[in-house]
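Predict the holo structure. Ligand: pyridoxal-5'-phosphate.
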Amino acid sequence: MIWKVLSYPRCRLTSLPTPMERAARLSGELGIELLVKRDDVMELCLGGNKVRKLEFILADALNRRCDVLITRGATHSNHVRLTAAAARKFGLDVYAVITPPGSLANQGNVLLDRLLGARLVPVDRVEEADEAMLGLAEKLRAEGRNPYVIPVGGASELGVLGYALAALEILQQSLSLGVRPKYIVHATGTGATQAGLTLGLRLLGASDVKVLGISNGRRSPEVVRRLVDLFNSTSRMLGVDLRASEDDFVVYDEYAFGGYGVITSEVVDVMKYVARTEGMLLDPVYTAKAMYGLIDLVRRGTIERGSTVVFVHTGGTPIAFQYAAEVERYL
Ligand SMILES: *Cc1c(COP(=O)(O)O)cnc(C)c1O
């Protein structure tokens, strides 16, 4: 049934598949077989998981003859940066409502947003951000423009399709490496990544592969509710007879270290550890917390020694520069 996903219109924003590599030294230290799906390695503007979602979302926007994208995110948002880059690649304008946390100084993603010419509209309270997007859309329509509003994180049914295809890539690449993953571990936020991987595995008849989401801030029940909704609405959109319930998702919220965007010594320690073991960069908001979770789940025996584990590197490295002062504190 994965052909239903493959037949959806898609814009090409990067070459796929992204690489999947064996992290030999980390594998040895942790006592597992660790593969890293490098979704941080993409052509479009430093890459990351939002690119896969935007391939489907952009195709829809272009089909509707939209000429300007509107989205929102935290000030340090990777999603805003990549939406801006995707918009530019297809000749569209872009507005982004941005909310705390994150600095507005010209560093990291904010610097890149400005280079890309995204119009940043700061709003103090996240609760007002959706309304601000709709107000912006109305204003642009009154000026004769045709705006397209993308939800925070690209967490729409079309966004979910991007990660359903990633599940196919992961299984194919595992097969060619001669392994079968038992777990896929990744940072989870607005949910399209986890909902998409879970849906893709179900469509492929591979739901024995367990997806473990590490929340970067939200409490687990709230994330799971969103995952159920996203999974079910996407499966309805595809016209497939698959339904998910809360039991189909595992989300750990104990690795957020004080909440979204909070950077503690543990987070920087993991960034240093992975940089010094594998030469691989993690970001302090998403991937470092996800890797901390993975390591702790191995330590606790939830992930059994000897298991084959795929860590999805969802990107976000520019954030390390935006939070240089916080990271520096624990160097
Ligand atoms: C957005 C983001 C996530 C979370 O992905 P969701 O699909 O929103 O759950 C994880 N890692 C990075 C680097 C991100 O930018």
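Strands lie at 20-22, 33-38, 68-74, 93-99, 119-122, 147-149, 183-188, 210-215, 250-252, 308-313. The chain has two domains: 3-47+155-328, 50-154.
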